[in-house]
Structure formats: structure tokens, C-alpha cells
Amino acid sequence: MRKILVGAVTLVSLMMPLQAFAEEPIASAEALLHQMDEASRELSYELSYILIKKNSIEPLRYRHALEDGQTYAHLIYLSGPPREVIQRGNEISYFEPGLDPFTIDSNKMVAPLPPIMQSDINELSANYDFISMGRSREAGVACDVVRIAPKDGARYSYLLWIDHRSRLVMRADLLDRDGEPLEQYRAVSYVVNPKVGDVLKSLRSVDLPAVVQLPPQPQAELSWQVNWLPQGFESVSRNRHRLVLTQRPVESKMYSDGLFSFSIYVSEADSYTVREQLVRQGRRTLHSHLQGEKEVTVVGDIPPATARRVAESVVFVGSKNGANSTAEKAAP
Fold this sequence. Notes:
Keywords: Periplasm, Signal. The protein has five helices and 19 strands. By secondary structure, the protein is of the alpha+beta class. The strands form three sheets. An eleven-stranded antiparallel sheet has the order 6-5-4-3-2-1-11-10-9-8-7, with helices on both faces. A six-stranded antiparallel sheet has the order 13-14-15-18-17-16, covered by helices on one side. Strand 5 (91-95) and strand 6 form a beta hairpin. The protein is globular. The protein starts with a helix and ends in a 16-residue tail after the last strand.
């Protein structure tokens, strides 16, 4: 009888924090995202998580701290060949097998982190709705669940589990337009502790690769433009270069809305060009088609239907369809 009473008392004690959590008022979805953004940028923490894709599971560990106004971070892949990324202020160093280590000037890692951790919430609010989805548990802690849904339906959405106490992201599901998951970031364990900052401060004295000094790249004047873009996507770079293997000239533009990005490539068609091709692997879509003597290819983190519409809206300067177009236009 005594064991039964002890078990009952234990069960009640475990349920009380969850009940109290359920009774607390939920902050607005946008407020939660701002709190998440602040926590991700300012706390000293270590997060172990897995990135789940259709055919793979990648375990990773991410450490972050803000010390004396400077960001320090360290991402390490926990399986396979040693790979890591180190951030020290506005310098990010990459260590990859088969490549010489290098450092670039940047304040954003190109690494498997939930993109929302490196996005501007205020900018996203113009093109996404932030929807509170209630409360749940993830990684053993109580979480507020928020959906980031596009207003135009022309891109993917995210479902986030945000730790009620620390406001760190415990889980992030990338969903297609049917609500099916394309990939998931799921925390396994985490700790918020100033000692993480003490560990990362040692990066101050680490001898990292010298910053790569790239010559300034003039913004090339391209012979084409895009007549339709999803609302909020803006050009962030453009380039003209030759493919390494074939030396075929290619013109390209990259676009981003602050959460997702894609690139358009235009080149002369050759004997290897197919009339139309569509491939989707996880979050990445590739759509290419022939337009006269040109091959137009769209590659990026957008749905296939959006990639197709962007590709088909490309017009060439001086052509019948593009002669009167003077600027790229976003969807209304």
C-alpha cells in the first residue's frame, strides 16, 4: 500500500509543472519568435540535435555564446569524417575533409542550423503569418509551438517547438505545401550555462585560417530578367562565369526572402540539354527548360510549382516578350 501511495505522489509531482505550464497565458506567436531570436543570439548554450532528412540522419552539436559583444560559435558534425564550423565575431572558418581550411568575412554560418535562427523576424512578418499552435513537449521540456506560414502559398513553411523557459528552438519541421515534413531539426539535449561561454572564449587565441581576400566582383549586366517572383524575394547577388568542366558561359542570379533562397542559371543550350527537367530532393528543387536557344534552370529551397513559374517568367532583353519589361516584379 505504501508503494502505491509513493507512486501516486510521484506521479502528481511530475504532472504539476505541466499543469501549471498549461495554465499560463501564451504569448503571441510573433512575440515568441522575437524571444527565440534574442535567446539564440545572446544566451550561452550547447545544443545537441539531429537533422532528419528522407534518407539520412545527421547528429550535430552546436555551442554558442556572446562575450563582450562578440559572437562565438562552434558547430561540429558528430558522425562521418571530421567536419566543423567556427565563428569568431564576423569571421567564420570552415573545416571540411579534402579541402584546405578557410575563413570568410560573414556573421552567418553556412551550416545545418534551423534557418529561423539566422533570420530577421521583422522582415519575415511582411510575407509570413505567425500562428500559435498551442503547447507540447519536445526534448523532455515544455514548449510553445509556432507555425511560420507563407501568405502567398508559393513557398514552404516551418513548425517550431520553442522551449518555454530558455526560448531556444527544440525542434523545427520544414513542411511542404501539403503539410508533409521535408526535414526536421530535433534537439536531443541542451544546456544553458555561462560556462559554455568560458569554453568558447578560448577561440580568441586559436590560430584559425587567414581570411580569404576575394577581389571585388562587379555586378554583371545580364541579358535577361525575371517577370515574376514570389512576394518578398529580392536579388542578393548576380554573376557571370564559365563552368569548370565544359567552359560553357553561365549567368546567374540569387534571390532570398530572408528564410529561403534560390538561384536562376541561364546558359546556351547544347547537345546535352534536355527540353525540360524537374527534380526535388528534400527541400531542394531543380527545374530546367529550354527557351529558344537558352537553357533556364532554377535551383533552390522552393516548391516545384514555384520554381517552374519563376523559370517560365524569364525573358531576354530585346525579345518580343521582354522588350517592354524594365524591372523584375514580385507577385502581387
